[in-house]
Design a protein that fits this description.
- By secondary structure, this protein is α+β, with helices and mostly antiparallel strands.
- The chain folds into two domains: 75 residues; 132 residues, Jelly Rolls (Sandwich).
- It has nine helices and eight strands.
- The relative contact order is 0.11.
Amino acid sequence: MDLTAKLALALFFIANITYCIAYVVRDMLWLRLLTIIAALLTFPYFIVQPSILYSALLWQSAFALINFINVIRLLHERRPVTFTDDEEKLRALVFPNFTPYQLKQFLAKADWHTAAKNDVLFKQNETLSALYLLADGEVDILQNGKRIQRRLSGTFIGELSMMTGNATSAEVVFATDSQYVSWPHEVIQEYLEKQPDFGRSFNTLMSLDVARKLRFS
């Protein structure tokens, strides 16, 4: 085996080691970058064979191109994002671990509202078409006219109705002058389908929110 073939074989082994490293890193951007490097390192091995392995080169090129496109997308999503004061407060309170670009898009789809003390957000046994998030203030949760819980800023409201499709099990009344945001159910569903990474994080957040409320109910 001549020196060129030995070097190509060494690069091929390095490529496979790089693939292994790529599959254990947690950051998606590094996974994509390492996969591109690994694919390129295999090229010399396929070229120095007695008969050039064009099929392998084609597939590795395709994998590298797909990952390159995804790297561009990830860099685009991770560019600096400017939040309004209200959005930044909500981000810090509820969404601190979310990708800024995707979160900015999600918050842009929300409707912002103000409410006065004693205003009713919704009554018991209503069918909701939106998910609510209390940005600032407090609400009382009432069942049959009796307060069973008070919720503070950063709390989702109506999430069980959205997740199950059932009517509301309680009435929600604002205990203070408040600010809240809402998303129509169909808007949330459409965005989560388009952004599966965000969707997984959002569904985890919702599940933790429900579990916390059940624990203290």
